[in-house]
Amino acid sequence: MGLLLFYFINLHGLNIKIINNIIMRSYNLKEKETYMKNILIISSSPRKTGNSQMLCEQFKAGAEFTGHKLNLIQLVEKKIGFCRACDVCMQNGGICILKDDMYEILEQFKKADVLVLATPVYFYGVSAQMKTFIDRTYPIWQNLGYKEVYYIISAGLGEDIINRSLGDLDGFVEHFQRYEIRGRIYATNVMEAGIVRSLPVLQEAYQMGKSV
Ligand SMILES: Cc1cc2nc3c(=O)[nH]c(=O)nc-3n(C[C@H](O)[C@H](O)[C@H](O)COP(=O)(O)O)c2cc1C
Fold first, then answer.
1. Which of 59, 119, 122 to mutate to test the pocket of ligand 1 (most atoms within 8 A of CB)?
2. Which residues pair with 41 in a beta bridge?
3. What is the spatial distance between Cα 21 and Cα 42, in angstroms, rounded to a whole number?
4. How far apart are CA 200 and CA 73, in angstroms?
5. Which helix (H) or strand (E) holds 206?
6. Is the CB of 191 under 6 A from ligand 1?
7. Which among 164, 183, 163, 156 is positioned nearest to 50, based on CA atoms?
8. Percent of the chain with pLDDT over 90
9. What is the DSSP code string of 46-92?
10. What is the pTM of this model?
11. What are the NADPH-dependent FMN reductase-like domain coordinates in residue numbering (predicted)?
12. Considering only CA atoms, which residue is closest to atom 15 of ligand 1?
């Protein structure tokens, strides 16, 4: 009888330990899950080593350091056609008739908690690649969800030019169900590709990524 009681107490203690362990593990997992964000960076310069792309890479490095999940998409490497305005997607539950890389990008977009939109200034607007991306979100435009948003913009001239060029990005982001613009990185007076390499804005991009 004494021996039985001894086994019971020990087994009981073991069970409590195991249950405690399971609770602690799921608690830690939950903490990690809420901490880790899905970050989608849309880089739209046609220059593969351009200023805005370099800033995207720094932002990515900073965010990765903190443990977030990153996906950096360079639109120039993707096959993305222009929106045809056929409106088929408005009648078939949001399926675009164009079969190209935008399907996968929209899947990534839906999953993203954080969206980074990067573009050079072209004639007081965004790049053609960025505008094409924005238009192709049309199949899901009524269901764009909540996103934390960051802008990365490079321009040959000064900050006033950038401020005059934000209409396309703001107009897109304002269609989200909920959003917060959390940061803006402006690389001004950078005409040639790669100039940002020697500028403080590079570090600024890294720090912003780290602070997500
Ligand atoms: C077609 C074209 C149009 C441009 N228009 C402007 C402009 O309106 N204002 C400006 O400040 N810079 C303008 N630029 C300069 C770019 O914004 C600048 O070179 C920028 O650094 C490019 O970014 P990236 O290196 O990320 O490609 C233009 C460049 C090109 C090729």
1. 122
2. 72, 116
3. 41
4. 24
5. helix 201-210
6. yes
7. 156
8. 82
9. SSTT-HHHHHHHHHHHHHHHTT-EEEEEEGGGS--PPP----HHHHT
10. 0.86
11. 38-143
12. 156
- Residue 209: strand, helix, or coil: helix
Is residue 122 scored above 80 in pLDDT?
A: yes
Q: Give residue 100's identity as a one-letter amino acid code.
A: D
Candidates 3.90.79.10, 3.40.50.2000, 3.40.50.360, 3.40.50.720; CATH matching 37-210: 3.40.50.360
Closest residue by Cα to residue 185 from 120, 112, 135, 134: 120
Ligand 1, atom 4: nearest CA belongs to which residue? 122
Average pLDDT, the chain: 89
Ligand 1 close to Cβ of residue 119 (< 6 A): no
Give the residue-averaged pLDDT of 159-187.
95
Distance CA(186)–CA(114), nearest Å, equals: 18
CB of 156 shorter than 6 A to ligand 1: yes
Q: Which one has a higher pLDDT value, 9 or 50?
A: 50
Supply the pLDDT for residue 31: 46
Q: Is the model's pLDDT at 136 over the cut of 90? A: yes
pLDDT above 70 for 59: yes
* Cα 44 from Cα 77, distance rounded (Å): 10
The residue-averaged pLDDT of 96-100 equals 98
Phi, psi at residue 183, to the nearest 5°? Answer: -170, 155
What separation in angstroms does the CA of 126 have from each of 140, 144, 151, 197? 21, 20, 11, 22
Q: Which atom of ligand 1 is nearest to the CA of 120?
A: 23
